[in-house]
Design a protein that fits this description.
372 residues, mainly beta, Immunoglobulin-like, 3 domains, 48% strand
Length: 372
């Protein structure tokens, strides 16, 4: 008996005899052996908002069955589709289905850990890695929104923007981003004042210009969204999420500043006087003159009726305006003044009186603004 035990130990040590479970009714039985293939599972690619499934195999290389009670995923985007618990017969194998639910763009990875047991106790199954890619075709615009500014009621203007599969090369930064072309079939506008002029369908491979018309029929601010029905060339993802916000302000009249004169036709002073005389909300637009400076010889008249002024192209220099002169005074009405620059004033740049409550100030430093 002693010699038999010695020979048994030698065989086990040399790996010539399988490790066995304890005696069962006086008979040695081989323990279950769990083997997983592949050890690294690539489930493939799916579009964001979709799912993709794949399978891996659990093999029992022993002579005793075991049961997979649970499979735990370290990443909630992955789940096990196959019903559990699952029996794995001795010498047999089973297929397990795993699913990737794509909720975020990019590569997803998980570790799958197994809880398995047999009649003899716990069964060791090696963890495996599962990897997948969540894709989304890109529709990028050169700007987040299209602003038409102020437009007189009864008039319409056109503005354009660039659209492309990846104007900013974000595919280099975001794994799974799909920078392939697409076809814009149609467009849905949430506001009747905004419409696409460009001919559709339009195939976009690198970048294309889309022309939009804004038509003013009633006074007041107008906002909407243009949503494009677009099909991607990406075979994984059929549709492209493509939209742009549009906005504009419909006013009673537009008074244009065409020169830097102190007064007279085309001057800022005359535009303010005209807007004050015209009841209701008006707009004062400045023609693009790079680094233009207006130097009034005296203080400008106060604004007494609502107006929208975009001073992106001008600077008010008050060196000639006199002692205590302010740059611009909002006296009555809810106006909007933006991007106007002030320099050389003895008083304040922009003064907002109590009667002009509700006015909107954008892009003007607080240090040059006085609120009454």
């Amino acid at each position: 008996m002693k010699n038999k035990l010695i020979w048994l130990a030698l065989l086990l040590g040399l790996g010539l005899m399988p490790i066995q479970s304890p005696l069962s009714h006086g008979v040695w039985t081989a323990a279950p052996m769990c083997s997983i293939r592949p050890g690294l599972l690539y489930v493939g690619e799916a579009c964001v908002g979709k799912t993709i499934d794949d399978f891996f195999v659990v093999q029992n290389q022993g002579d005793q069955p075991f049961t997979i009670n649970a499979i735990n995923s370290s990443n909630p985007a992955f789940s096990i589709v196959s019903p559990l618990p699952m029996a794995v017969p001795a010498g047999g194998e089973v297929m397990v289905e795993v699913r990737l639910n794509c909720t975020e763009l990019g590569d997803s990875i998980t570790t799958l850990d197994f809880d398995a047991t047999s009649a003899s106790g716990p069964v060791q199954c090696e963890s495996i890695l599962a990897v997948g890619t969540c894709r989304r075709p890109i529709c990028s615009k050169e700007r987040p929104r299209l602003d038409f500014g102020s437009v007189a009621v009864g008039q319409s203007v056109k503005r354009s923007f660039l659209v492309g599969p990846d104007l900013f090369l974000s595919r280099r930064l975001i794994p799974g981003s799909s920078a392939v072309g697409f076809t814009i079939n149609a467009v849905d506008s949430s506001h009747a004042a905004f419409s696409v002029v460009s001919a559709l369908p339009m195939t976009v491979t690198t970048s294309s210009v889309i022309m939009v018309r804004f038509t003013c029929t009633e006074a007041g601010p107008q906002r909407g969204t243009l949503t494009f029905d677009a099909d991607s060339f990406d075979k994984v993802c059929g549709k492209v999420d493509c939209h742009i916000d549009v906005l504009g302000q419909c006013v009673g009249a537009i008074f244009t500043v065409t020169n830097t004169n102190d007064d007279g036709s085309g001057s800022l002073r005359q535009a303010i006087l005209d807007a004050n005389r015209n009841p209701g909300l008006d707009g004062i637009q400045v023609e693009p003159v790079v680094n233009a400076t207006i130097s009034p010889g005296r203080e400008l008249p106060p604004i007494t009726d609502p107006v929208i002024i975009d001073g992106a192209f001008i600077t008010l220099n008050g060196e000639r305006a006199g002692s205590g002169a302010n740059g611009l005074v909002l006296e009555r009405g809810a106006s909007t003044v933006q991007r106007l620059k002030f320099t050389g004033l003895d008083g304040d740049g922009l003064v907002v009186e109590e009667g002009a409550g509700g006015s909107t100030i954008k892009g003007i430093p607080a240090r040059t603004t006085k609120m009454a």
